[in-house]
Specification:
Elements lengths: L1 H9 L4 H12 L3 E2 H8 L3 H14 L2 E4 L5 E4 L2 H27 L2 H4 L2 E5 L1 H14 L3 E7 H16 L3 E7 L8 E5 L2 H8 L3 E6 L3 E6 L7 E5 L2 H32 L4 H6 L13
Parallel strand pairs: 5-6, 6-7
Antiparallel strand pairs: 1-3, 2-3, 4-10, 5-8, 8-9, 9-10
Pfam families: Regulator_TrmB, TrmB
Protein name: TrmB family transcriptional regulator
InterPro entries: TrmB-like, Tscrpt_reg_TrmB_C, Tscrpt_reg_TrmB_N, WH-like_DNA-bd_sf, WH_DNA-bd_sf
Length: about 270
């Protein structure tokens, strides 16, 4: 019985209200005097308690010289509480949407630690996108985000992906970057770069487990250049698709000579991840 009292308290019943309601579930209709006697609620409090339950719609009253009370069936009460809770959640969600894109957010860069946490943030960004998603991602992380990206595409968001590894999609524009294993080895890990609606970005290393690091920001000073880096990678992918032979003749397979040209390390590898 203590458990049901705790449950009713979580449904915004006071202790006396819970006792009165449960008493009426066991036997009804009852007068106020009988409810007090059966439930243990003090007679000096019972009519105030019953009035509150009536006003909330948890019990019904039959008026007369001696009013009698009967409970709303438990299933109906639960359905009513669930409906009210969902309405409150909907109102709260709409209210808090006004703050999700605040000036405060637009002027800060937020650190995210851990691969799971980074992907959770990307999912949140995907959910809020309305027009366009640009994403550079490895196959491993793409598979964890595919359902969220599909849902975005189904609501009309244009999804474009630069994929490292064999990625197939029936809802996105996918540019496959072959040599993904060589790129992973060259950089010492996998990264992820997300841009949504040209207004927010998530960028970081996602292959270090709990030590993965990324940043999320709406700061235009970073959103613009990071988004444009993705777009310029798309330019390069388009050029390779149409003129690969010519470009590789000048710069080596997969433009390896260009990557070597701008490396500062003698082994031609990137050493961001120590």
């Amino acid at each position: 019985m203590n458990n049901i009292f705790d449950t009713l308290k979580n449904l915004h019943f006071t202790e006396y209200e819970a006792k009165a309601y449960l008493s009426l579930l066991e036997e009804s209709p009852l007068t106020g005097y009988a409810v007090a006697k059966n439930s243990g609620v003090p007679r000096s409090k019972i009519y105030e308690v019953l009035d509150n339950l009536v006003m909330r719609g948890d019990i019904l009253v039959s008026p007369g010289n001696t009013p009698q009370y009967t409970p709303v069936p438990a299933k109906e009460l639960i359905r009513h509480r669930r409906t009210k809770a969902e309405e409150n959640f909907d109102r709260a969600e709409k209210f808090f949407e006004n703050f999700e894109r605040s000036v405060h957010d637009r002027e800060n860069i937020w650190n995210i630690t851990g691969d799971t946490e980074i992907l959770d943030k990307v999912r949140t960004c995907i959910e809020s996108a309305n027009k366009r998603i640009l994403l550079e991602v490895w196959k491993e992380e793409y598979e964890l985000l595919a359902d969220d990206l599909r849902t975005a595409a189904q609501r009309g968001v244009n999804v474009t992906i630069i994929a490292y590894g064999e990625v197939e999609s029936d809802f996105a524009n996918v540019y496959l970057y072959d040599m993904s294993l060589d790129i992973t080895d060259e950089y010492g890990g996998r990264w992820l770069v997300y841009s949504g609606d040209d207004s927010e970005v998530v960028a970081g290393i996602v292959s270090l487990g709990k030590d993965s690091r990324a940043a999320w920001t709406m700061h235009v000073g970073l959103v613009m250049p990071i988004t444009e880096v993705i777009i310029h990678d798309l330019y390069l992918m388009e050029l390779l698709n149409k003129h690969r032979d010519i470009l590789e003749e000048s710069f080596g397979k997969n433009l390896i000579d260009l990557r070597h040209k701008f490396s500062i390390h003698p082994d031609f590898k990137k050493h961001y991840v120590k």
